[in-house]
Amino acid sequence: MQRIANLLAVQNDQVLLLQKPRRGWYVAPGGKMESGESIYEAAVREFHEETNVTPLDVHLKGVYTMVIKNGEQVIDEWMLYTFVARGVKGTPFKETREGKLAWHPVGELQTLPMAKGDRTNLLFAAHQKGTQYGTFEYTEDFELISEHIQSSIE
Amino acid sequence: MQRIANLLAVQNDQVLLLQKPRRGWYVAPGGKMESGESIYEAAVREFHEETNVTPLDVHLKGVYTMVIKNGEQVIDEWMLYTFVARGVKGTPFKETREGKLAWHPVGELQTLPMAKGDRTNLLFAAHQKGTQYGTFEYTEDFELISEHIQSSIE
User: Fold this and answer.
1) Can you give the pLDDT of all 154 residues of chain A as single tens digits?
2) Distance of CA A34 to the CA centre of its chain
3) Closest residue in B to A34 (Cα–Cα)
4) ipTM, 2 decimals?
């Protein structure tokens, strides 16, 4: 089962997002965990590899069960770990083979094109206290079928 | 890849632990996530199934990458999600086919026999603020080879 870690960097009321070429959708930089990594190590490493910057004050905001379905059949299932960083050190790449990187006003998380579940995750990471949990079911074409969310505050 | 969720219930300076028959080691009640569950749902369900009580004020405290090694070879790898609950509703089972359930003074987390990594997790869950991340490497006989820990506070 895949484990994906991504990270939303927030600095001066802006967020660093990657625009993927295929659909033009925006994502928080991240990628696949490697064997033996912790989710924290994976999020920091993947973010640095994709952006060239070091995230500061990194904290886990969400753990999500991602399910791809074709009708009632589960096609794929993986775990997504979403972190936030309250600042970065360094200057991000402008473009990589993964897509275009840029800072956006945090308010644009409401409107930029992205997977529906990602908007839920990223708005929580940017604005809410505590930790979010949930399951997102998508079609193979990445249309959201359902989301079930829980959250807690320490 | 397996995903295991467990939960440490803390109430009146006591913790509810399960003593497993095989080695006599103590664990926080939990078990395997099912397809499509969130980690939160899995922790609450497994805890209730194993103890007969409902955990209150449930919050994620740690996410751990668990690796079983034989020499340099990785034999197995799974994810462990450790939650805390600040109280419970109901009266726990005394004994189940999983082992013996009992409340213990929270200080006994320091001394009760358990897997070394579990002590790290449970002491953090009981006493520390924030979220812990890390990787535990064990032998097939569940001797700890290494632990690498990170943590963060919101």
Assistant:
1) 999 999 999 999 999 999 999 999 999 999 999 999 999 999 999 999 999 999 999 999 999 999 999 999 999 999 999 999 999 999 999 999 899 999 999 999 999 999 999 999 999 999 999 999 999 999 999 999 999 999 999 9
2) 17
3) B65
4) 0.96
Contacts of B1 in chain A (CB under 8 A): 1, 3
HSE (side-chain half, CA atoms, 13 Å) at A47:
29
The answer to whether residue B45 neighbours chain A at the CB level (below 8 Å) is no
Contact state of B154 with A59 under an 8 Å Cβ cutoff: yes
Residue A55 to residue B33: CA distance in whole angstroms: 31
Rounded to whole angstroms, the Cα distance separating B140 from B69 reads 6
Structure tokens of A59?
Answer: 């904290």
DSSP B69-135: EETTEEEEEEEEEEEEES-EES---SEETTEEEEEEEGGGGGTS---HHHHHHHHHHHH-SSEEEEE
Instruction: Tell me the domains of chain A and their CATH numbers.
Output: 2-63+83-130 (3.90.79.10)
- What does residue A141 show for φ and ψ, rounded to 5 degrees? -95, 10
Contact by Cβ (8 Å): B82, B88: no
pTM to 2 decimals?
Answer: 0.97
CB of A132 within 8 A of CB of A151? Answer: yes
